[in-house]
């Protein structure tokens, strides 16, 4: 009888955790009450924060004893990691990226925090769990954290991000980013979401892209930027003149090479990055200016 109840509970728990899974590159940890991912490629603090944010998580801080324990389990021996604690808004006012003050039971490395040369606004954690302040521009590994939320559900695009929509005509999912970024950050955002800057492989897909653009009128975007272009996944790879997709194919090989009339025009100061107009016709565009962009995602990516 008890065994049966246990089995039943087990099944319920299994089904629930399958439903509520976040992404398969993150590991659930009871002590953290959520998912963690160790990011082994060192980044400066701002890039670390951004990558976690774009992955749908936050840069992890040892907010309490259990969270610290969970983070230390993921940290490699003798490696310092960045935490989400920072004073980049106001010197000495350390808060986690969730806005919480430093845990009052936190242990500090001897002599820390010392704001050495008035240049240290970010907190690291040693592999024994002690904190210190360091320069935010240096690079360290870090951990991203997604707190469990019973409302999160993966959709047909394999993500809890409800801005991804499946298009039956192409078998891909797309997200139109209305918050503008420069091309390299747009690339980063799509990758962090488990996708890539959209690659148009056919006229059918161009139609889908035009339809997605139509759902995002200029009035739906906040800020001062040109709202009739969006970055997509092609680039001149530093060889000005030839455009290849981010997968290295010529546009023709990829299946769609229709530029807008008069484009590519390499407008003044040079345009090396790929974009589309609202028509889904292609255009070359300034990489370092910020524009909307479109990510494409395989519904199976991020799903285990
Ligand atoms: C989706 O596309 C597939 C093949 O492209 C087709 O067989 C199917 O009928 C389509 N489903 C809907 C709902 O349009
Ligand atoms: C585009 O313009 C930039 C600077 O204006 C120039 O350096 C580059 O060679 C041009 N590319 C082509 C293909 O004309
Ligand atoms: C060249 O392309 C840019 C956008 O990439 C556009 O703003 C500009 O109007 C184009 N110039 C001409 C002459 O078509
Ligand atoms: Ca220090
Ligand atoms: Ca595609
Ligand atoms: Ca252009």
From TrEMBL:
Residues 28-145, 169-296 form the C-type lectin domain. Pfam families: Lectin_C (PF00059). Residues 1-18 form the signal peptide. Keywords: Disulfide bond, Signal. InterPro entries: C-type_lectin-like (IPR001304), C-type_lectin-like/link_sf (IPR016186), C-type_lectin/snaclec_domain (IPR050111), C-type_lectin_CS (IPR018378), CTDL_fold (IPR016187). The keyword Membrane does not apply. This is Macrophage mannose receptor 1-like. It comes from Vanessa tameamea.
């Amino acid at each position: 009888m008890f065994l049966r109840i246990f089995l039943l509970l087990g099944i319920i728990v299994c089904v629930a955790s399958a439903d509520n899974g976040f992404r398969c590159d993150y590991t659930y940890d009871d002590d953290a009450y959520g998912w963690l991912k160790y990011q082994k490629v060192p980044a400066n603090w701002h890039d670390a924060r951004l990558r976690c944010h774009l992955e749908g998580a936050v840069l992890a801080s040892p907010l309490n004893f259990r969270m610290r324990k969970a983070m230390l389990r993921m940290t490699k021996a003798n490696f310092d990691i960045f935490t989400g604690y920072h004073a980049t808004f106001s010197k000495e006012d350390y808060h986690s990226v969730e806005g919480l003050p430093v845990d009052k039971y936190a242990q500090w490395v001897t002599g820390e925090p010392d704001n050495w040369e008035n240049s240290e606004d970010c907190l690291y954690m040693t592999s024994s769990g002690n904190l210190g302040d360091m320069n935010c521009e240096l690079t360290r590994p870090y951990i991203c954290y997604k707190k469990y939320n019973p409302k999160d559900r993966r959709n047909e695009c394999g993500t809890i991000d409800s801005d991804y929509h499946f298009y039956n005509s192409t078998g891909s999912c797309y997200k139109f980013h209305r918050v503008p970024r420069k091309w390299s950050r747009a690339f980063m955002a799509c990758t962090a979401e488990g996708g890539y800057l959209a690659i148009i492989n056919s006229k059918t897909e161009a139609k889908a892209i035009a339809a997605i653009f139509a759902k995002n009128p200029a009035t739906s975007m906040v800020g001062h930027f040109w709202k009739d272009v969006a970055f997509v996944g092609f680039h001149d790879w530093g060889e000005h003149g030839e455009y290849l997709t981010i997968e290295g194919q010529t546009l023709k090989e990829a299946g769609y090479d229709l530029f807008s009339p008069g484009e590519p025009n390499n407008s003044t100061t040079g345009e090396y990055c790929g974009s589309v107009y609202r028509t889904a016709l292609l255009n070359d565009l300034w990489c370092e200016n910020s524009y909307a962009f479109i990510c494409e995602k395989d519904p199976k990516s991020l799903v285990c």
